[in-house]
Structures are given as structure tokens and as C-alpha cells.
Amino acid sequence: MAARGHVQDPNDRRLRPIYDYLDNGNNKMAIQQADKLLKKHKDLHCAKVLKAIGLQRTGKQDEAFTLAQEVAVLEPTDDNSLQALTILYREMHRPELVTKLYEAAVRKVPTSEEYHSHLFMAYARVGEYKKMQQAGMALYKIVPKNPYYFWSVMSLVMQSISAQDEKLSQTMFLPLAERMVEKMVKEEKIEAEAEVQLYFMILERLGKYVEALEVVQGPLGEKLTSELQSRENKCMMMYRRLERWAECNALSCKLLLKNPDDWQFYLLYFDSLFHLIDQSWTPPQEGAHSAEGEVHASTAQALSFMEDRIATEEAKESKHLRGPYLARLELIRRLRERSCPEAQQLGEPLELMFQFFVKFGDKPCCITDLKIFLDLLTPDQHVQFINRLMEAVPLCAPGEDGVALPGDTRALQRHLCVTQLSRSLGQQHALNTEGKLGLIKELKAHYQHGLQFGKSCLKTELQFSDMYCLMAAHVYVDLWLETGESNMLWQCLGLLEEGLSNSSSNAQFKLLLLLLYCRLGAFEPVVDLYSSLDAKHVQHDTIGYLLTRYAESLGQFAAASQSCNFSLRFFHSNQKDTSEYIIQAYKYGAFEKIPEFIGFRNRLNHSLHFAQVRTERMLLDLFLEADISSPLEESVKSMSLCPEEDDIPWDSLRDNRDLTVLVSWDPKDRQLNEEHRQRSLEEDTLWLRLRSLTLRLIGCVSALSHPPASRNSEKTTENGVAAKPSSLQSLLSQLENTLNQATQFSEKQLQVRTVTDRLALSSGCCQCQLSSLQLPLHLQELEATGLGSLLHTSLYMLEKCKGDLLEVKDSHSMTQHFLLENLVYFVETVCIVLWVSNYCGSVLRPLKSSLQKKKKKKKEARNVDQSFSSLQSLLNQALEHIKSQELSLTALELGALSLEAEATFTKTAMDKVQSSYLRSLQEIGELLKKRADTLKSLKI
Amino acid sequence: VFSSHSNLDPLTETYGIPFYLQYLAHWPEYFIVAEAPGGELMGYIMGKAEGSVAREEWHGHVTALSVAPEFRRLGLAAKLMEMLEEISERKGGFFVDLFVRVSNQVAVNMYKQLGYSVYRTVIEYYSANNGEPDEDAYDMRKALSRDTEKKSIIPLPHPVRPEDIE
Fold first, then answer.
1. Residue A226: which of B29, B70, B71 has the nearest Cβ?
2. DSSP state string for B123-147
3. Quick one: A540 exposed, middle or buried, by C-beta within 10 A (0-12, 13-18, 19+)?
4. Distance CA A147, CA A154 (A)
5. Mind listing the pLDDT tens digit for each residue in B124-141?
């Protein structure tokens, strides 16, 4: 872990065993060994630091810090101490202390290249760009190596990127950086590719595109060799910025001749072509068309260029590229957009797409490729198109059930592609219920039949016919949404469970199952499904929402904690990791990557999902623990929750959710669009605001009853109420406003269900939570009657939870899963009511004895006592309801349903839902019971 | 570079972010991503250059090669490998190498078709999730133009242990 190069140093020999213990995770022995050593050698500072590392790693942060500071104030200059302290501070998440350390070291040993370089990296870790610039130059003065000079230049670029003031960035930082590089250019001191890249980056950011182009095309550009087509790509970028369409066109032409499968250059070729046509560009009288050679500036030239590409492709025996064929369709689209009659010369899209299908129909990507060109067909061509393709699918003669099946996997893939296209064209949606049921039957037949091709598939491989199964499930969902028949949903779940049993790695099966179970309010099966998806790293951010949205609100508290933790762990480690690689990027001169890495870090730090799990995790901890295992104020303190502080970056929240992770072949008008995403983001942000305000208000309530020690007791009012309701008041009015906004929002949304819609808004529990949090404010005027009306509302909420979660009617099982979510929010509300009541009690209790004379107050106290006993009876009622639900659920024999023989998987799904409901009820019941127990101590 | 496309394919390792960052910081040119016309991520390759020039061991290494299931059987892996070889050529490498599970016959055959041969077997190179040794690897190599006599790919007679490789 530290430098052990100087074997001759006796201290190294002495320290060695401690290092070894630490490396092996034996922290206790490391501490002991360090103590032993320190007895003999008091001045062996490094031993102290190593001991501190051991302490830090055994959870004794405070001790570790004190010990480390003993060494740090001595401003050590030995390698061992410095490196050990660096490691310790990093583990403490205090990178800013490392800068102090090396600032001192550099002061004492001003000529040390090593310490200066460590200082630079320490600044880089905390993003002190200005100091980095100076440290880089200081280094260069000691040792005139180019990289140091350019570290300093890059630090200027970073100052410009991070500057709030765009003008400062454009007139000061970047020009200075430019001059610094120019100086080196003039002195012919440019050595490395990285230096040229940095120069280019600066010029580009300055908008000096002509100069940037000159650099790339000049002798310095010859250094740009590592990346493939580095010079070409950079030139292209500049041509576009400069709107030099002739060069842009000629260069894309050249690159397409080299690689006719590079899609981006087709797009550039078409873009530039039409710009040139619009400008009526003509070639110069003499000489070359452009600096990049021949230019195409007419539709005719483009048509013949495309025909040539196709002809070249056709001439090949095998391994045809998709690019030219797709580009032809793209050109048709663009010509049509401009109403150019020449579009027809390229052929009829239906025919061209048919030909594409003949060539590539047996590749799984065929659907992805053709899907984006379906809008080239007119609606009356759709049936003809599908029929035409179907003719090119080799199927065996229909069997008894009338379904013609493919004979091998290639035929299967072709058939599947046509089926997918047909769905994308809306043909499946247009079917009536009977038609859809027929379609499902057919898809199932294809699915079952196709399984034979995948008998030898490994567990990690998908079955060839999986997509049929998935599509049949989609049709079931269509039917369920149209008819509202829960039977369709059960069939769908059964089919997906069956699919999963045959193809255990199919992520799409898992995702759809996961979503549908959540929709049914059954979270228990979701835990396993999600963990088998093996989501890693960044996926916790992009698809974690699937899990965390539902976990708590469906009453599976333990699982909810766990799912928040998965995500949180990822976000926290990202913080630390990214800084290390920013440093590496400096070391290796990957300057272009530095802003990217920082952008990536911000993207994760500002993630909506991160803010959500952070907030939900804290709320959950409070609901589950506060005043049960430890008092509320301790819980609040331990999560360092500060009601005055808002730690959510509302203005820069990033929506990183991958809302398209589930495959969909729906036609365009049914697909998720930007508006849906926007609405869902708005809803989730509102919800986050509600939750975060609720959380901070709970923090307020806790602070009210236990004001910070420094508060002057004189300042409390005669009622014993701590006087600082200002933040409470402001948070309350914010909560009220947000709640109004949310109500308006959900009224607007009534017609369209969004991705994540929140039941809590409609059940009125948010309103109730608000009223309970308002109580402490009323208590200032000794108006505790609010508690009575609050109880009234709670009772009403409980009524909304009543009903059967799962019942069997006419041999169909039906769910009323929304009752579960209502119940969870009811319990949450109870928690809040109890905390507030606890506070009310603590205020009123002293009054009862001492202020007997004041009649009003005495009466108030009696009222509160009455309210407490009504609260008790409310909780009893809720507990009884839960108990009876548990009993009836357990008694429910789903096996009694006359399910068909093949429906064993449907039965599996039903059992999972039943078991999940039961577990949710148990967890909710247990929490409520614990809460009821805390009420007993609440007598005045 | 960081794709938001979710990579849930069981055959495709999703490495930790530090792993990707490390490669991007050190060998950015060796990170190549292929995108489909519709914007879907088709595949990527990730590699590095390492080894001693003096000992003629300077070479390109394929760390990860991955093609999304629906874009397989299009020759995309071959194209990405070709690009990595081209980059290694420019860096003056003597050969390109890669490690592959001995059981992954599909991959071994593909690499053979692309001109790679087994240079040596590395015993228990892969470990299972619990840290237990899991499987041997083939170290496969393809000589680049600098290795005119193709010395770098002469197979070793005996298997080696992971700690013996550099």
C-alpha cells in the first residue's frame, strides 16, 4: 500500500509488519503492532498514521482523526507518513486535507518534483482548478517536462468550463490557455499527441474553427495518430461548424467509399448535399471541387452515388452490408420531405423494404432496421406489405390447429420479423377481442414449436422463440387494458412465468413480470426477479426506479430498505471513484476525457433517482425505527437530517431513468413519447418534493421538542414551547403549496395514467400528513383541538383501506391492490400523528400539574387525553382489519379455481401474489402494533 | 461514451464504472462503440496496449468485446477486432492477444477464423463469484506486421498459472 522501495531504511523494515496486517484486513493486529513500535520509537510518526488507519477501519473515526492530526501538525516530509495520511484522508472522505498536507511538504522541500506532483493531484481530486494551474507551473519550473506545462494549461480549460461567467471564460481563461500553447508551438516544443488534442480543444471552445482546422491539417495534426480517423473526424467537425458544406460533402463521400457501412457519414453526406443544393453551389471554374476533392451538389449525383454503393454491394457474394440499403431508404425519406419527384427513381419503398427483408430477414436486427422506415409506407399499403413479406417466409403446411410453422431457426427469425412488423403497423391493435385471442393462440403455437430449436441452448442463452411468448404477453396486456378483465392479466403472468421457466436468462420476461406484479401490488416476487436481472453499477440509476418506486408503498419494508441500499451504495462509491480517474486522465494526457468524467459524475450526483432513494431511505428508517428502537430525535440526529437545509439540487435534477428498457413493438402513436416522459418527470419531482418536505418537517418536530442545547431557555415561551417556528412555518406552507400543485397535476392527469402514478395523492393521506404536521404550530396557541379533527380524517382514511385485497368471484380471482397502498400510507400517517402527539403531550404534560388554575389549559389537556384514547381505538380497529384480511387471505384456496390443466403457471403467479399480500399485511401489521405500543406511554 | 442503454444481456459482462473509467483515462483510443441507425448500441470493444518493446512483447490486448444479441451474426465483432488490430499496428505492437474461457467454443472458433491461435493455456484464470477458481483460459494471439517471423505466436508447450503471466 505504500512505497517500500528503500529497503535500506530501517524504519521501513520496522513498519513492514503493520503494512502487512493492514493489507490483510487484520486491523486489530496492525493497531497492536503500531503501539508496540511506538513504545520503542516515539518519533516514528508513520506508525501513528498506520494505527489511525487501523482505527478508521474498525469504526473509530474520531480517534483515528485525532491521532492523524497529531502527525499532520508536524507537517511531515517523509514518504511513508505522507502516503499513509493520504490513504487515511481518502478513506475518511476528506480529500481537502490531503492538499493541506502537501502544501506544507512543498513549503519545506520546495524542489521536490514528487511532492509538487502529489499536490497537483490532491488539488485535482477536489477540483481546485486555479491552484492546479499554479501547481502545474511550479512543477514545470522545477522540472521542465511538457506534461507538467500542459497540466497547467488543462487546468485553465477547466477553470473556463466551470466558470459561471461565460464572458470570463471566453475572454480570460481560454485565451490565456491558447497563448500558453502557442508559446510552445513557436518554440517548437510540442511533443505529444495529447498536447495537440488539447490545443484543438481550446481553439474549438474559443470558436476559432478556422485555426483549429489549420492545426489538424498542418504538421501538428500529423501527431494525431492513436485514434482511428482522428484527423478526418476532427476536420469533419470543423467543416460542419464552419458550414463548409462542400468539404463536408466531399469528405463524407471519401469516407463512405472506404467504409460503406458507417451510418453517420451517410447522414452527413445527405445533410451537406441538401445544403449545397439550397445554396445552388457550383464547382469552381478550374481546379479541385474542394479541399477534400469531388463534391456532389445535385440530386442526380446523389442518386447515382447511392446506386453505385448498392451495385458494389450487390456484386459481393456474401456478407452484404446493411448500410447502403438503409441509406437508400433514408434518401427517399429526405427527398420526399423536400417533395422531390426524384424520390421515385430510387424505387418504391415497399419493394425496397421487401428486398431488404429477403437479404436480412433472418437476422434479429431486421426489425430494428426496418422499423424506422415504416412511415414511408402509406396506410393502405400495410396489409400488402405484410402479405408480401409473409410470402417470403418458408413455412411448413399448416397442421391440425391451422398454424403454419417454420422448419428452422432462419425461417423462424423471418416469421418473427414479419410478426413484429405487423404489430408495429398497428395491425394487432386493430383486432377485436376474439381476433386477439386467436392471435395469442397462434403466437403460443409458434412459441411452443420453436422451443425444439433451442434444446441445446445454455442457461445463459435465450430461446429462439422467446419473442413470440413476449408478444403474446403484450397482446394479453392489450386485452386486459381494453376489457379490464383480470383473467387476461393472470393468463399473461402465467405465460411469462412459463417463458421464464424455459429461458431463465430472458431479461424482458423478468422486466414485464416485475412491472405487472408491481401493478398488482405484489412486491414479494419482484425482489427475486430484480436480483436475477443482476443489475449492476449504472443500472442501479437507470432501472432502479422499477424497484424503488413500489417497494415501500406496497408494504414490504425490509425489501424496500434493501433496494434503496443497492442504489445508494452505487451512488456513494461513484463519488470517490470518479476523482481517481480524473487524476489518471491527467497522468495519461487524456484531456478530452476530463470534462466527460466530470459531466458523468454530475449526471449521477444530480440524478432524480439518487435524491429519491436518499429521501425514501430516511423516511423509511424513521417510520420503522423512530420512537420504537430509539427516540425520534436520535434517529434524526444519526442521519444528520437538517430541516433547514435542502440537499436536493432541484434546478439541475437529471432524469436518468431508462424508460425504454422494456421492448415494445407498439405503433408510433402508442409508444412512449417525450410528453409522457416529461409528465412522468414532473410527477416524480412533485412527489419527491412532497416527501422531502415531509421528511424535513419531521425533523422540525423533533427539533421542537428537543431544541439544540445552545438555545437560551429564557427565550422559550411560558408555555414551554421552543420558539423557532419560522422554519416550521415556511416548510409547512411549502408543503401546502406543493400539495396543491400535486392535486392540480393529478386532476389534469386523470385521463392518462402515467408511468409511476401515485395513489397516495388520491387517498388523501398527504393532506392528512400535512394537517398533522401543522399541529405543533397550532399548539403555539394551545389549540390542540386540531388533534380531534385529525383523528376524524384518519378514520376516514382507514375506511378507504377496507375491503378484500384478493377475492374469488365467479371462479375468477380479483384483486383490489390499491387497498394495500392506501393501508401503507395510512400507517405512515399514523406514525406522523404519533410523533406530533408525542410532542403535544410533552408540551401539555407539565401544564397539567403546575397550571391547575388556568382552566382553559387544563381543559385542553383533558381534550388531548381523550384524543389519545380515540387514537388508541383507531389503531385497534386498523389492526383488527389487518388481522381479518390475513385470515381470509390464508383461507383463500386459489386451487379451487377451475383452472385448465395447462394453467399451472397461472396458478404459480396467483400463489405468488397471494403470498406477497400476506407478507405485506404482516409487515404492516407488525409496524402498526409497535406503533400502538408507543401510544400507551402517551398519557398526560 | 457512457451509454444509457441498459445492458441486461447475460453474456455481456457489465463492468464497474471504475473499470471503464480506467480504460478511458489511459487508452481512450482503444474504446470503440458501434451504434445502429436507430441509435441502439450494437456493440463495443475495449482494449489496451502493454508489454516491453525491448523484449518484443509490446502488444495490443482485447479486454472486452461485446455485441448486443439482436446485432449478432452481422460480422460486427470481426469489424471491431479489425479496428483494434489497426490501432495496435499503428502503435507498433508485435501482436494482439486476448483471453477466453476454454468452454466458450463459439468465441474460440470465431477468434480462430479471425486469425488467432492458442498461444498458451492459463490454468484457473477465471474465478467464480465466490472467489473460487472456476475455469482455464486460452491466451490467443495474432501476430502483427512488426513480428515478421511470427515469433510471438509460437505456442508454449506447457500451460501456465495466472501469476506467471504479465
1. B29
2. EEEEE-TTS-EEEEEEEEEEE-TT-
3. buried
4. 10
5. 998 876 777 888 999 999
Nearest to A319 among B2, B7, B75 (CB): B75
Among A260, A203, A201, A269, CA closest to A230: A201
Query: Chain A closest CA to B145's CA: distance in Å?
Result: 17
| Alpha-carbon gap, residue B141 to B115, rounded angstroms | 8
Q: Give me the residue from B21, B32, B90 closest to A581, CB to CB.
A: B21
- Which of A896, A886, A891 has its CA nearest to residue A926? A886
For residue A239, give the C-alpha cell: 467543416
Look at residue A713 in the predicted model and tell me its pLDDT.
41
The pairs formed by A216-221 with CB atoms below 8 angstroms and a separation of 24 or more are A220/A185, A220/A190, A220/A196, A221/A196
CA distance A864 to A870: 10
pLDDT given at position A857 = 58
Instruction: Pick from B3, B6, B42 the residue to mutate for testing the A interface (most A CBs within 10 Å).
Output: B6
Buried b (16+ CB within 10 A) or exposed e, A861-884: bebbeebbeebeebbeebbebbee
Q: Which residue of A has its CA nearest to B24?
A: A593
Those residues whose C-beta lies under 8 Å from the C-beta of residue B75, and which sit 6 or more positions away, are A319
Under 8 Å CB-to-CB from A309, ≥6 apart: which residues? A256, A260, A324, A327
CB atoms A581 and B72 under 8 Å: no
End-to-end CA distance of chain B: 29
What per-residue confidence (pLDDT) applies to A859?
63
Q: What are phi and psi of A906, to 5 degrees?
A: -65, -40
Count CA atoms within 13 Å of residue A876 on its CB side: 7
Q: What one-character DSSP code corresponds to residue B151?
A: G
Cα–Cα distance, A481 to A86 (Å, whole number) = 59
| Nearest Cβ partner for A364 among B7, B18, B70 | B70
Q: Do A593 and B87 touch (CB under 8 A)?
A: no
CB < 8 Å to B90, chain A = 225-226
CB contact under 8 A, B28 and A330: no
Residues of chain A with pLDDT under 50: 1-7, 709-723, 751-756, 782
Identify the burial level of A849 via C-beta atoms within 10 angstroms of its C-beta, where 0-12 means exposed, 13-18 middle and 19 or more buried: exposed
For chain A, first and last CA: distance in Å? 60
A282, burial (CB in 10 Å: exposed 0-12, middle 13-18, buried 19+): exposed
Distance separating alpha carbons of residues A35 and A42, to the nearest angstrom: 10
* Torsion angle defined by CA atoms of residues A590, A596, A597 and A600, in that order, rounded to the nearest 10 degrees: -160
- CA-based nearest residue to A920, from A865, A887, A882, A871: A882
Tell me whether residues A585 and B25 touch, CB distance under 8 A.
yes
Q: With H, G, I as helix, E, B as strand and everything else as coil, classify residue A751.
A: coil
Helices (H), A706-854: 725-748, 759-763, 765-779, 786-801, 818-850
**Residue A802: predicted pLDDT:** 78
The 3-state secondary structure of A865-891, one letter per residue: HHHHHHHHHHHHHHHHHHHHHHHHHHH
Report the pLDDT value the prediction gives residue A304, as an integer from 0 to 100. Answer: 95
Task: For chain B, list residues whose CB is within 8 angstroms of any CB belonging to chain A.
Answer: 1-2, 4-11, 14-18, 21-22, 24-26, 28-29, 32, 35-38, 40, 42, 69-75, 79, 83, 86-87, 90-91
Which residue from A751, A754, A549 is spatially nearest to A672, judged by alpha carbons? A754
Mutate: best of A223, A456, A537, partner B, most B CBs <10 A? A537
Chain A residues touching residue B4 (CB < 8 angstroms): 542, 656, 658
Q: What's the pLDDT at B10?
A: 45
Length of chain A equals: 940
Q: Do A584 and B9 touch (CB under 8 A)?
A: no
CB contact under 8 A, B38 and A580: no
